[in-house]
Amino acid sequence: MPEELHIAVLMFIAYRSAENRILAAAQEAGYSDFTLAQARIAARISPDGTRLGELAEQAQVSKQTATALVDRLESAGYVERVVDPSDARARLVRIAPRGQGVIPIARQEEARITAEWTAHLGPRRMGHLREALELLRELTDPYQGGNRKPGARRAE
Fold first, then answer.
1. SS (H, E, C) 77-139
2. For the chain, how big is the Rg over CA atoms in Å?
3. d(Cα 154, Cα 132) in Å, to the nearest integer?
4. Per residue in 61-80, pLDDT tens?
5. CA-CA distance, 112 to 105, in Å (whole number)?
6. What is residue 50's three-state secondary structure?
7. How many C-alpha atoms does 36 have within 13 Å on its Cβ side?
8. For residues 41 and 55, is the Cβ–Cβ distance under 8 A?
9. Which pLDDT tens digit goes with each residue over 111-144?
10. Cβ-proximal residues to 6 (8 Å cutoff; 6+ apart), any chain
């Protein structure tokens, strides 16, 4: 009998499937000049902008890697760097107008995925899954609410 997969692996498989579908939907809509790694960085940018170091930490990549990814996104017009209003010495990475065009496409695909998963699991199980994952987030998400929790591990 095969070994049972760890719950985290099962969650990752579902996440990876959704992530690939969202990227494919964006590419089919004409946004084909960014990579999955770039999309993972862009997905972590808050509506008001996010500092590069925070993006690197959340994506669990080096600051150099995050810089290279943001540079390519900026060159393609998906993001822009702006002065941080709270500290004129710092810069924020913000979604640029071209990047804003990808957001409704991603949200539409997310809605399709949710509908398919709900049809497969049934509304009750899907509701329980969401409830369980939201509770689990209290233990696992150091960025919940936009702030890193004390004691949370930093990316190297």
1. CCEEEEEECCEEEEEEEEECHHHHCHHHHHHHHHHHHHHHHHHHHCHHHHHHHHHHHHHHHHH
2. 17
3. 25
4. 999 999 999 999 999 999 99
5. 11
6. strand
7. 8
8. yes
9. 999 999 999 999 999 999 999 999 999 999 887 7
10. none
At 99, the amino acid letter reads G
- For residue 69, what are its two tokens? 């990814």
Q: Which two tokens stand for residue 156?
A: 């190297």
Answer whether 0.90 is exceeded by the pTM: no
Amino acid in the structure at residue 81: R
Architecture per CATH, domain 34-96, reads as Orthogonal Bundle (1.10)
The residues spanned by each domain of the chain are 1-31+101-141, 34-96
What is d(CA 20, CA 44) in angstroms, rounded to the nearest whole number? 16
Asked if 38 and 73 touch (Cβ cutoff 8 Å), the reply is yes
* Nearest by Cα to 102 from 50, 45, 31, 54: 31
Give counts: helices (H), strands (E), the chain: 7, 2
